[in-house]
Design brief:
It contains one helix and two strands, in the order E-H-E. It is mostly loops and about 170 residues long.
Length: about 170
């Protein structure tokens, strides 16, 4: 794992490099960065500031994104399988068709996020805020939704998800 600065990453990306697996970008500022199709698998981006960024079709497999600021980010068709997004702010994020299989989204802020047709199988969403989110056609088999807030969200099929009495439904109870 090597530490890389945001400036170095952006410079190399603009020169055509896309493979940045296993780099450390913790606490860096990548505000509005356009990094489509980048490979950051196995990287560390804890507490990284990346709102309004574009990581569409990015490979973020097993990436560490705890407490990252990702509000209004584009993650369309991104691979976030087994990524750790606990405590991350993904409010209003575009996660349409994203792969979030086995991802840790505990206590994540997903208010207003678009998760249309996202793959959330085996994802841990305990105590996440999904209020006003779009979960239409999302795959939720074995997703952990205990303590999750789904108030005013557009839901798909929750029959295979693991909810309990602490899960707040779209109606507010």
């Amino acid at each position: 794992m090597r530490k890389i600065s945001a400036e170095e990453l952006l410079a190399q990306y603009s020169e055509g490099k896309r493979n940045f697996d296993a780099v450390d970008l913790s606490e860096d500022n990548l505000f509005q960065a356009d990094l489509q199709e980048i490979n950051l698998s196995g990287s560390i981006l804890r507490r990284t500031y990346l709102p309004y960024g574009n990581l569409s079709q990015a490979n973020l497999y097993k990436t560490q994104l705890q407490d990252a600021e990702l509000g209004d980010i584009q993650l369309y068709q991104a691979n976030l399988s087994e990524a750790n997004l606990s405590g991350a702010n993904l409010s209003r994020a575009n996660l349409r068709h994203a792969n979030l299989q086995g991802a840790n989204l505990q206590k994540a802020n997903l208010q207003g996020a678009d998760l249309y047709n996202a793959d959330l199988r085996n994802a841990d969403l305990r105590y996440a805020d999904l209020s006003r989110s779009n979960l239409e056609k999302a795959q939720l088999k074995n997703a952990q939704l205990a303590g999750c807030n789904l108030f005013r969200s557009r839901l798909g099929d929750l029959s295979d998800a693991e909810c309990d009495r602490t899960t707040i439904g779209p109606e507010g109870y």
